[in-house]
Automatic annotation (TrEMBL):
InterPro entries: CdaR-like_regulators, Homeodomain-like_sf, PucR_C-HTH_dom, PucR_C-HTH_sf. This is PucR family transcriptional regulator. The lineage of its organism: Bacteria, Bacillati, Bacillota, Bacilli, Bacillales. Gene3D superfamilies: PucR C-terminal helix-turn-helix domain. Residues 306-359 form the PucR C-terminal helix-turn-helix domain. Transmembrane segments: none annotated. It comes from the Bacteria.
Length: 367
C-alpha cells in the first residue's frame, strides 16, 4: 500500500462542518444506534456516492472529511480510519473499553435525544435497536434528576445507578442527559411499593416516590438537587422524547415560580404552565391592574398572609392559627386589602384573580 499516494489524494480535502439539519439523518441514525459518538470518531460512513470520515461531534453539527468513495480502495479507507483513530482519540479509545454495554447504550440514547432537540424535534420514535436494548416493552415511571453538585465534582454512572437501584430495590434504567441532569426509568411496581395501608391516588403515590428519592439523594449523594416525576408511560419508545421535554419544562417552571422548592410535580404546575405563555409585559400589566400597586411592591406582610391563606384553601381560622394572629386581626387585614384593591379574597372569583397575580408577581419581581 502506497501511503504517499494516499497523502497526495488527501491534500486537497478540507474539513467540513455540517449541521444536523443538513446531514441525512436516517443514515446517521443507523450509525448512531451502534456506538457512542466518542467511538465513532475516525470512522467512515458511506452516504450515496460519498464517504464521510467523522472528526468531531458537536451539539448541533458534525465535523467531517467528505470525499468520493471511488477515490480510495477498501484497504486505503481502513488505513485512514486507523490513522484518524490513533491521532484523534488516543485516550477515549482506552477509556471506552472499560465502559459497560449498559452505559454505552445510555450514551447512545443521550446522543439521539440531543440530535432530535438540536433539530427542534420534540416528538420522535426511538430507533428500534435502542428501544430493544433498553427493554421498554413494560410500563415505566420516568423521573428527572438535576444535581446541585459543583462543576468540579464528577458523578460516576456506575455508582449513581448502584445507589438508585439500592434505594428502589429494583432494576432501573439510567440515562445521562445534560450536564448534571439524569433520566431515571423505574418499574411500575414502584407505585405499589410506595402505597401504605390506605389506598393512594396515583398522584400521591408518585409524590411519595419523588419525595423519598429527593431525601435519599440529599442525604446520601451530594446534597441539594431537584427532582420531578411523570405519570407512568406505556410504549416509552414512542414518547420518550416528549416525556423528557415535559419534565424539563416542569422543572424549569418549578424553579421559576417556586425557587425555594426542590421537588416539582407536574399536576401542581398546570396554572403556572398557562401563565408562562404570557409575555413579561403582559405579566407585569396584569399584576399592576389586579393589585393596583403600580408604583410600589405589595406589602411583604400582606404577601405572606395571602400566600398562606391560599395554601390553606382560604380557611380564615386555619390561616390565623398558622400565622399566630387573632382571627379578627386576620379579617381586619383582609378587609384592608379589599379597600386597597377592590378585591375580597373570601370571594372565589376575586381569590382566583389575586392568586394568579401573586404567582406572576413572584416571577416578575425577579426579572
Amino acid at each position: 500500500m502506497d501511503w504517499e499516494r494516499i497523502k497526495r489524494k488527501l491534500e486537497p480535502i478540507v474539513k467540513t462542518r455540517i449541521t444536523l439539519s443538513e446531514l441525512p439523518l436516517k443514515e446517521w441514525d443507523k450509525l448512531a444506534t451502534t456506538q457512542p459518538d466518542s467511538e465513532k470518531i475516525g470512522k467512515s460512513m458511506r452516504i450515496k456516492d460519498q464517504l464521510y470520515f467523522l472528526l468531531e461531534v458537536q451539539a448541533d453539527a458534525v465535523v467531517v472529511f467528505i470525499m468520493e468513495h471511488t477515490a480510495f480502495t477498501s484497504s486505503e479507507q481502513q488505513l485512514i480510519e486507523l490513522v484518524l483513530d490513533a491521532y484523534l482519540l488516543p485516550e477515549n479509545s482506552k477509556a471506552s473499553s472499560t465502559i459497560s454495554e449498559e452505559e454505552k447504550t445510555a450514551q447512545l440514547v443521550k446522543e439521539w435525544v440531543d440530535r432530535q432537540l438540536a433539530l427542534k424535534i420534540k416528538e420522535a420514535i426511538l430507533p428500534e435497536l435502542l428501544a430493544a436494548k433498553l427493554s421498554l416493552s413494560s410500563t415505566k415511571i420516568p423521573l428527572l434528576l438535576y444535581g446541585g453538585y459543583s462543576d468540579s465534582h464528577t458523578v460516576s454512572y456506575k455508582e449513581l445507578k448502584k445507589l438508585l437501584e439500592s434505594f428502589f430495590e429494583a432494576d432501573i434504567i439510567l440515562i445521562p442527559l445534560l450536564d448534571k441532569e439524569w433520566l431515571i426509568l423505574g418499574s411500575e411496581s414502584l407505585l405499589t411499593a410506595s402505597e401504605g395501608e390506605e389506598k393512594e391516588s396515583v398522584e400521591d403515590a408518585l409524590a411519595s416516590i419523588c419525595s423519598g428519592l429527593y431525601e435519599m439523594l440529599a442525604n446520601e449523594w451530594v446534597g441539594e438537587c431537584h427532582v420531578t416525576i411523570h405519570y407512568p408511560q406505556e410504549s416509552l419508545d414512542k414518547s420518550l422524547l416528549q416525556v423528557i421535554v415535559e419534565m424539563r419544562d416542569t422543572m424549569r417552571l418549578g424553579k421559576m415560580f417556586y425557587p425555594s422548592e426542590t421537588m416539582h410535580l407536574p399536576w401542581q404546575m398546570r396554572l403556572e404552565k398557562l401563565l408562562n405563555v404570557l409575555t413579561e409585559a403582559e405579566q407585569q400589566r396584569y399584576v399592576s391592574q389586579v393589585l393596583k400597586r403600580t408604583n410600589q411592591s405589595p406589602d411583604a406582610e400582606m404577601y405572606l398572609l395571602l400566600e398562606q391563606f391560599f395554601e390553606l384553601d382560604c380557611n380564615v381560622s386555619e390561616t390565623a392559627k398558622s400565622l399566630y394572629v387573632h382571627r379578627n386581626t386576620l379579617l381586619y387585614r383582609l378587609d384592608k386589602f379589599k379597600q386597597e384593591t377592590g378585591l375580597d379574597v373570601r370571594n372565589f372569583n376575586d381569590a382566583v384573580l389575586v392568586q394568579v397575580a401573586l404567582l406572576l408577581y413572584k416571577v416578575t419581581k425577579r426579572k
